[in-house]
Amino acid sequence: MFWNCRKPISRKGARAATARAGLIAAILLSAAGQTAQSQPVEDPDWPCIQRKVPEISPGMVWAGPPLDAAAASWRDDPEIAALAMKIASRRTPIEEANAAIKELAEAAGADEDKKLTMLFAGALGIINHDRASIMSGIQRYATRQRALADKIERQSAQLAALPVEETPPGVTSERDDLLEVQNWDIRIFEEREHALTYVCEQPVLLEQRAFALGREIMKYLD
Amino acid sequence: MKTQLSLAGAALLALVMPAAAETIYVSNEKSNDITVIDGETLEVTATVAVGQRPRGITLSHDHKFLYICASDDDTVEVLDLEALEIVGTMPSGPDPELFVLHPDGNPLYIANEDDNMVTVVDVEKGTVLAEVPVGVEPEGMGISPDGAVLVNTSETTNMAHFIDTATHQITANVLVDNRPRFAEFSGDGKQVWVSAEIGGTVSVIDTGTKEIITKIGFEIPGVQPEAIQPVGVALTDDGKYAFVALGPSNRVAVIDQQSFEVLEYLLVGQRVWQLGFNADQSRLYTTNGNSNDISVIDVADREVVKSITVGQAPWGVVVKP
C-alpha cells in the first residue's frame, strides 16, 4: 500500500530518521540493562518492567482448602466447569462473576465448600492457561521488536555508505528509497514500543482478576 | 427539622463513642492523592489531591499535620488535617521516599533514594539541619524509642547504618541480606528488625552489640519462594507480635516476637508493602499496591476483618488517634 505514496524525503527528515534510529538502539540497550539488573537469573528477553512470574501460584490468591484435588476434578462437573469458564473470562464484568459465585454458594447446600473450592481451582486453572499464552505472545513480540531494531541498525549503516545525490523531480535515488523503507520501519517500531506498556499490563490484570475471584469465593467458605 | 434531627443524632453518637475519633490516612503513589478513612465506620470520607508520587507519610507530634514524601516533586508536603489542604512544603533532598520523626516531634529524618543521603530537617523552621552520607539507595528508617539512634538501610549496599542523632555520625554498619527495605525498633529499644526484600529474610539486630541475633525466613505452602519479598515491619509495644508484609505473595507473616517463630501467614491484598497500627495497637492496616486497597487486621484475633478500596497504588498508611 505505501509504495503508492512514495515521495522523496528531505535531508532534514533523513537526519531526524537517523537520530531516531540511534534512539531506538539506546532504548533497547537500556531495556536490556534494566532487565539484567533487576532479574539476574531470569529471562533476559522478557521486555516488561513487571517481574516475570511464570504462573499465579494458589497461595498468592487463596487461603481456603488445598486446591490439588479440586484442580483435578473440576472439569468432571459440567456446571462447575461452565461457571469457572464464565467467571474467569475478562468479558464477564466482575459484578456478574460475583453474582454467579453467590448463586452457586446459595444453591450448593452441604457441598458448598467443596463446590466453591472446585470453582476456584477451575477459574485459576483457566486464568493461568490464558496468562501463559499471553506471556509467550509477549515474548514473541519482544523477539520481533529486537529483529526490527537490528534491521533498522543495518539500514543506518547502509545509509551512511550511500552518497547524497541530486535527482530530477519525480525520480528517487537509492538512498531516498532506503530512507523511505527505514522511516516506515522506525514508525512501526515506535508504535509497537508504545503498545508494550499496555501489553505488559495484561498478565497483571489477570492476576488482579484471580485475586478478586479468590477473595469473593472465600467469603462463602465455612 | 431533618437537619436538627441528624445533628442531634450526631451529638448522641459522639456521646456514645467518645474515643471513636480515629482517622486513617493512606498515600496513593499513582493517583497522587491521600485517602482519608473513618477508623470507626471504615468508610472513605475524603480524597485529597497532593504532589507527585506520594509515598512515606507520618503525623506531626500534635496530630495537626500529615507530612508527605512527594517523591517526584523532591519535597515534603505538609497537609493540614483540619482543612485537608496542603499548607506548606519542607526541603527534603531529591526523591524522598521514607522518613521518620524524632520521638520528641522534631526533627524529621528523610531517606533520599537518589543521592545516598539522609536529610535532617527542622519541622518548625523548615530548614535542613544536616545531611548524612549513607549507602546506595537509602530507604528504611527506624528511630530508637529514646530518639538517640537512627537506623537507615541502603537497598544496594545491603547495610543497616546506625546513626548517632546527636552527632549525625554513623557509629556502626551491619550487613544484612539483599535489598533491605525497612527498619523497626522493638518497644524496649533493644532490637531493630530489618527486612530484606530480595534476600527474603528479616534480620533481628541487637542494638547493644550490633550483632544479628537471628534471621527469620519465610515459607508459604503454595507460593513460589521468589514471590515472598519482606518489606514493612510492625512490632507490638508489648513484645508479643511482629508483623511482616511479604510483597507479591500477598501475605502478612505474624511472628512471635520472643521466639521468632512464624505463627501464620494472613492473605491480605496484592503486593502488600507497608503497615500501620492504630493507637492502642488493636488493629493493623496494610497497603496493597496492586489490588488498590488496604486490609484491616484484628491484632488479638490475628485475622483480616475487612478490605477498603483506596486510590491507585496505595503506599503509606498512618492512623491519627
Number of strands of chain B: 28
Strand order within the widest sheet of chain B? 3-2-1-28
Shape of chain A: rod-shaped
Low-pLDDT stretches of chain A are: 1-15, 29-41
> Tell me, what's the shape of chain B?
globular
Strand content of chain A: under 5%
Question: Which structural class best describes the helix and strand composition of chain A?
Answer: mainly alpha
Class by SSE composition of chain B: mainly beta
Q: Report the span from N to C terminus of chain B.
A: 33 Å
- Helix content, binned percent of chain A: 55-70%
Count, helices of chain B: 1
User: What's the average pLDDT of chain B?
Assistant: 92
* Alpha-carbon Rg of chain B, integer: 19 Å
Biggest beta sheet summary of chain A? none
| Structure summary, number of beta strands of chain A | 0
Quaternary state, please? heterodimer
Rg of chain A over CA atoms, rounded to whole Å, is 26 Å
Task: Provide an overview of this structure.
The complex is a heterodimer of chains A (222) and B (321). Chain A has one domain (1-222). The N and C termini of chain A lie far apart (63 Å). Chain A has helices at residues 11-38, 68-73, 78-88, 94-107, 112-161, 174-218. Chain A is mainly alpha-helical and 222 residues long. Chain B is mainly β. The longest helix of chain B is centred in the first third of the chain and has 15 residues, at 2-16.
SSE blueprint and pairings:
The complex is a heterodimer of chains A (222) and B (321).
Chain A: H1 11-38, H2 68-73, H3 78-88, H4 94-107, H5 112-161, H6 174-218
Helix pairs in contact in A: 1-5, 1-6, 3-4, 3-5, 4-5, 4-6, 5-6
Chain B: H1 2-16, E1 23-28, E2 33-38, E3 44-49, E4 54-59, E5 65-70, E6 75-80, E7 85-91, E8 96-101, E9 108-112, E10 117-122, E11 127-133, E12 138-143, E13 149-154, E14 159-164, E15 169-175, E16 180-185, E17 191-196, E18 201-206, E19 212-217, E20 233-235, E21 241-245, E22 251-256, E23 262-267, E24 272-277, E25 283-288, E26 293-298, E27 303-309, E28 314-320
Antiparallel strand pairs in B: 1-2, 1-28, 2-3, 4-5, 5-6, 6-7, 8-9, 9-10, 10-11, 12-13, 13-14, 14-15, 16-17, 17-18, 18-19, 20-21, 21-22, 22-23, 24-25, 25-26, 26-27
